[in-house]
Prior knowledge:
By secondary structure, chain A is α/β, with parallel strands linked by helices.
Amino acid sequence: MKIAIAGSGALGSRFGYMLHQAGNDVILIDKWKEHINNVRTKGLIVEDGEDKHVVQIPIYYPNEVRDQVDIVFMFTKSMGLGEMLEDIQPILGPHTSVISLLNGIGHEDVLKNYLPLENIFMGVTILTSGLAGPGHVAFSGAGLTEIQNFVHGEEQEKIARNIVQVMNEAGINTNYSTDVKFSIWRKACVNGAMNATCALLDCNLAEFEATAQAETVIRHIVREFVKVAKEKDTLLDEDEMVQYILESARKVGSHHPSMHQDLMQNHRPTEVDFLNGAVARMSEGFGFDAPYNRLITQLIHAKEEILSVH
Amino acid sequence: MKIAIAGSGALGSRFGYMLHQAGNDVILIDKWKEHINNVRTKGLIVEDGEDKHVVQIPIYYPNEVRDQVDIVFMFTKSMGLGEMLEDIQPILGPHTSVISLLNGIGHEDVLKNYLPLENIFMGVTILTSGLAGPGHVAFSGAGLTEIQNFVHGEEQEKIARNIVQVMNEAGINTNYSTDVKFSIWRKACVNGAMNATCALLDCNLAEFEATAQAETVIRHIVREFVKVAKEKDTLLDEDEMVQYILESARKVGSHHPSMHQDLMQNHRPTEVDFLNGAVARMSEGFGFDAPYNRLITQLIHAKEEILSVH
């Protein structure tokens, strides 16, 4: 299979490496100069536990790619999705399957502007990975990836199941999902309840969870997620979500969520518009208000401006 | 007049000093040991612009006071109001006027538990003052103080006007207000829109005002203040408040509001329950919700816990 990884950071490089090792014709696409230079001159360095590998995989800037591929895995930041799709138009043929594995909700609204609906496949992964430096990826957590065709139908499902097979053959533990929207919303709800709050309060998951306020704040945020998800035909259970989020925070403990890393540690723009911001935006379309997610979003954007991350 | 200053920090000391210089029989009441020791051994040091004075004014711990006074000015932090009133019961006679000059709203609900309604006088001041150290007060901004009787009636108004006269004779520029509740709500609304947000975002007034989010966030908070104030028969104008708050923030510029000082700089508990928290609490009683003020309050309390200010 000809496969492109659009956004070859920590997780994209992990997918790219595994698909390449399985014999696919993989290209990496990214914008980070040092990363690209290192992969080109020294190869991609991959650390998987005790093992260390160096592999040569072609890597390109988005505006350099030319040849149509069979599958594209999208691994950009949410804010960069549209621009990436714009740039990589030359590799998108009439039968190229594009799989969105981005965090958050509302990405289909961006994908639709660049692709025929039948070419869109939505996914969610709990695999994680880290970058030890430019050109140097270190695998971390294992876990399941789920994907599903965006347009229902036998033909579409067949394509999705074929992609699932390609992924499993590469050692990426993947299921065909009959309701990937549920998994996407569920993951977004967990992130929406914890990421922005920990970023605003400048604390880790366990520190926030330990406050007397945590359960109520989380419940307010979750309730609005549940309400909007329902309008999108996705049923989340408020109580179950709140308990799951509190338990996860206790377990994961001292981890600072990615939005905290982006905002407070690296002063980068956050993905809040595809988590809390998406709920606030979508609620308007359904004729109700989501004040908790709206205020959280606004405070995060204000903090981004104060730290001048733009 | 026999006058007690209950809470003799920066502003209380300023009032106490001025009333003492005008010939009143003033006692200071406070709980801060170093402050009390310094005032007792070295006198109260007062800096007023270029002038520096040292005066001997009696100062007591709350549980040391014994003799009934004519007037008590309450200058505690909001959270300390009830405890102070409990402690100073011996100085409160049947005709002792108690003037609340605390920031925020909802203090009457505390005062009512300790005093006959006719003895309560509500006030608001824009005078400011700073502490250069224990026993050492430095006057800063000048400005008007307003007071009014809590219970309506000729007799009550007469007492309030008499207090106004005592204050003006001491050089404290004071008006008898026919609607002090309006001034109190107005000031609380300004503080409610800016203080907690600047504390949460760890920024000064101008930094917050300069963000693209400021006006919307301020409007959401103000709208709930306006709605609750209306139920309390106090009419604030949303647009006028929002414009006034934005202009003030631009003017005052690099000032960090008191809640930022309490929370972020000194890791002390904040007065949020008597600003945003009061609006959230009161809205429930009136059968509606105030989610913006509620979430702001909860995030401030969470941050207090994370910084372990209690």
